[in-house]
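Dear all,

This email documents one entry for the complex benchmark we are building for the journal club exercise. For each entry we list the sequence lines for every component of the assembly. Then comes the predicted three-dimensional structure of the complex as a token string, followed by one or two observations. Please use this as the template for your own entries, and keep the labels exactly as they appear.
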Amino acid sequence: MSRKLLYEHINVPGIETFEVYRQKGGYRAVEKALSSMSPEDVLEEVKASGLRGRGGAGFPTGMKWSFLAKPEGVPRHLVCNADESEPGTFKDRHLMTFIPHLLIEGMIISSFALGAKDSYIYVRGEMMPQIRILEKAIAEAKEAGFLGENILGKGYDLEIHVSPGAGAYICGEETALLESLEGKRGNPRIKPPFPAVSGLYNRPTVVNNVETISATVPIINDGGEEYAKVGEGRSTGTKLISACGNLKKPGVYEIEMGLSVEEFIYSDEYCGGIARGKQLKAVVAGGSSVPILPANLITTTANGEKRLMTYESLAEGGFETGTMLGSGGFIAFDEDQCIVRNTLNFARFYAHESCGQCSPCREGTFWLDKVLYDIEYGKGSQSDIDLLVNIAHNIEGNTICPLGDAAAWPVASAVRHFREEFEWHISHPEEAQTRNFGVGPYADPLVSTVTE
Amino acid sequence: MLKVTENQEVNFSEEMLAQFGEIVSHYPEGREKSALLPIMHLVQKEYGWMSVNAMDKIAEYLNLQSIEVYEVATFYTMFHLSPKGKYVLDICRTGPCCLVGAEKIMEHIEKTLGVKEGEVTEDGLFSWRGVECIAACGFGPVLQIGPEYTFYENLTVEKVDQLIAELRKKEQEK
Ligand SMILES: Cc1cc2nc3c(=O)[nH]c(=O)nc-3n(C[C@H](O)[C@H](O)[C@H](O)COP(=O)(O)O)c2cc1C
Ligand code: SF4
Ligand code: FES
């Protein structure tokens, strides 16, 4: 069994209550931070831990915190991003449901380090049950003296507020989130200024993911250096992976970074292999926005190395033959799944979720959706394939926020690796309505599926 | 587009106003607008949808222009701009759920309820619609029912039938 830093006690009955969480050593990190550490000491531990943002981009958390502006007399804020809506990602909802006090404890430590006195957890509106759970956890922590005025008699005041969204993927993007938290439409802001300088209410703000904030608890308990010993290279610590699709045992797993992808998919400790004895065809390893890889490239890199669950190894090969760890939303496709249909589904998703502020994204996502719809329903032409690549290329990098890239990459990578399947759809419009292309050459151990 | 189909009489009760006040207190002075989304959720829970009257009253309460409420209502998918069934079945239609059969579940719901996406059943009890990923992909197919947004996971055709039957029965017993 690998080490669990977040989920060690996840199966303890009653761990969602303050009482049991506390019995299992909960809130020790708050006691330690407030009684024996300065905010700078906490920051130093987080830096030493090598923790990187778990929301998708993997930006070093200690560095992000150190960018926070600290003008005299201006309040600063910590905002927790609990908008979780990247298709394939369901770890934050899981954590908040089953061990909510871990997030609250992390919020207290992180707020202390940043000097925030009013911190917000922005939870996507559909997660009403989780909002109730968090509100209860906050009330319990307050009752026990871990929140409110003069926490543990150490002179630090903190309130944590839960604020709901209302159904918009784009509000997971940090500046759109801040707009939404201010009661507006979730239109991303143009950066700079970055939230660290001008965020919520134009005040210095740090936005961090649920899992990132929770990870500060083991970091403070055991020290940043201990945390950094877990994992591999610059991918330190553990990561929650939410695994879904055609797996025997989908679910949320805490892994030590560095685990091989093969072991994650096939071992009984994790996903237990592909459901119903089928063959693996493809994987989207980090949420719908990252490039899709065929089975042979997900377990082994193009230069023949074992692919590992780390930021670096998943990205090995760049966009030609690699992908990204992203948010840890791991989606497995079996031999019966149609890549064209899934690509259309994702394209529809991004077209639906585009906020419409910039034309490459607003027009491009709808165009991708339309072209893919034609191909899927037997009305495509061979030139449409290059058209897809062209549209994706013209969105990429030309937009205010990364949603444009997130819409372009899945399409570009699907065409890159599964071109035969797109061509077959177009050349066999009727047959494609009645059966799927099947596993094709993708599951063979690294033949030349990579089109240079 | 804001299409006005119907309107309704809206008067916030003392109890609701107290809840509004509690929400407003979470945000700094002068930043009351932050309370807009949570207040809209409460209002929709009470009235079932976002009528123009409801939005105007919210604007009045928070000292905003009505347009500031309309533009929010039209941006976010959770706000209903027309009356819906008492139970709105929000079924996830995004990729990962489709890998495990969400499309079949949607077809089945459409057939069983006998209404198209967004419409209301004759008895006023049900509406359904496809929504994007609701962060339960490993437990799909999945649907949610407001206003509490309870999750129903690992759906099968049988489970859906059972759920609809239970909700119908609950209403008859009232
Ligand atoms: C379109 C889009 C959607 C995003 N959705 C989320 C989300 O649901 N949850 C999240 O934590 N980060 C999301 N992010 C990333 C955030 O912008 C931000 O990088 C993150 O919250 C930072 O936290 P971290 O450093 O702890 O990862 C999204 C980004 C984009 C561009
Ligand atoms: S890239 Fe898309 S989602 Fe992002 S700001 Fe532009 S239009 Fe909006
Ligand atoms: S894809 Fe259905 S819940 Fe995520």
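Observations: Chain B touches chain A through 45 residues (CB under 8 Å). Residues A 53-57, 59, 64, 81, 83-86, 170, 172-174, 207-209, 212, 401-403, 406 surround flavin mononucleotide (ligand 1) (CB under 6 Å).
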